[in-house]
Amino acid sequence: MQVNWFKYAAPTSFFPLAGKMYPWFYVLAAILAIAGMYIGFFVAPTDFQQGEAYRIIFIHVPAAWMSMFLYLVMAFYASLGFVFNTRLSSMMARAIAPTGAMFTFLALWTGSMWGRPMWGAYWVWDARLTSELILLFLYIGFMALQAAIDDPRRGDKAGGVLALVGAMNVPIIYFSVKWWNTLHQGSSINLTRAPSMASIMVWGMLLMALSFWMYSIAVILSRVQCVIAKRERQAAWLQQIDQPST
Amino acid sequence: MHWKSLEEFFSMGGYAFFVWSSLGATVMAMGLEVWMVHLQRKQLKLHGSPNSQDNGNV
Asked: Model confidence over A75-123: pLDDT tens digits?
């Protein structure tokens, strides 16, 4: 069977699909958030060391995961844009950046709200915090660069280079707690060994992470429709200028 | 249920400011983002689920 892998790579065919899908992802995000918040704030027990302050984890860790994950997805789309020269890939990268920046900000904000009672400081220049701050600047730089270039395709290319080069920062964030002696604690959840926290806490955290993930898909699909509409509108407008006789 | 009273819940074991400002910032940031996309959609006249005729080629 012949599969057309590029069917939805055309903005015109992806646009209605995105419009149909995004409301459902909002619904999923809401359901998962209710379940996650319920477990996190009503079921999970008090931490024996950190008291109730540890409950920030149910927002902080999922937000930090999403901030890194979305950057990798954005860089992936940027690379697809270079390999296949598909406009939609670059549009997706554009649509992802604000949501990624939002989660990076939340990871930093909730982190400082957790750091103050536990470390005695809202901010320290340790490797984890600093590299996460650089991630925020990369997102902002990506958006500013694309906004500053009038030609959308040139903006796509320039932003794509920034996204790809900046992707190097993500493993640095992830491994910073291993590579350097950081004040920030190591990961509680790991693919290779059992989590070092109560399983009900892990469940709350995973549900919140899933919820943030679904939220990201919803808001990004909804935003990519705006990006497509703006671009295609301009294309139609250009066509009219270029070919007035047809 | 973990909490004995509503008061105990809101005080978060003395960490109320830190816990609730984290949650508040999250709700505000997400709300602001959804609202901004909504405004953009309104400006571009995109509605809930567009029919196939309206592919953004306005």
From this structure: 999 999 999 998 999 999 999 999 999 999 999 999 999 999 999 999 9
Which residues of chain B have a CB within 8 Å of the CB of A98? Answer: 33
Q: Which residues does chain B have within 8 Å of residue A44's beta carbon, measured at their own beta carbons? A: 2
pLDDT digits (tens, 9 = 90+) for B30-58: 999 999 999 999 988 886 444 444 444 44
- The structure tokens listed for A62 are 């999922």
For residue B47, give the amino acid letter.
H
Q: How far, in Å, CA of A173 to CA of A187, rounded?
A: 12
For residue A17, count other CB atoms closer than 10 A to its CB: 13
Cβ contacts of B8 on chain A, cutoff 8 Å = none
Backbone angles phi, psi at B8, to 5 degrees: -65, -40
Q: What share of chain A is helix, strand, coil (3-state, %, to 5)?
A: 80, 0, 20
SS (H, E, C) A57-107: HHHHHHHHHHHHHHHHHHHHHHHHHHHHCCHHHHHHHHHHHHHHHHHHHHH
Q: What residue in A sits closest to B51 (Cα-Cα)?
A: A16
Q: What is the pLDDT of residues B2-29, one digit of tens each?
A: 788 888 898 898 999 999 999 999 999 9
Closest CA to A188 of A167, A172, A204, A171: A204
Burial B20-46 (b: 16+ CB within 10 A, else e): eebbebbeebbeebeeebeebbeebeb
Q: Do B23 and A15 touch (CB under 8 A)?
A: no
Q: How far apart are CA A27 and CA A5, in angstroms?
A: 28
Three-class SS of chain B: CCCCCHHHHHHHHHCHHHHHHHHHHHHHHHHHHHHHHHHHHHHCCCCCCCCCCCCCCC
Angle at which helices B16-43 and A57-84 pack, to 10 degrees? 30
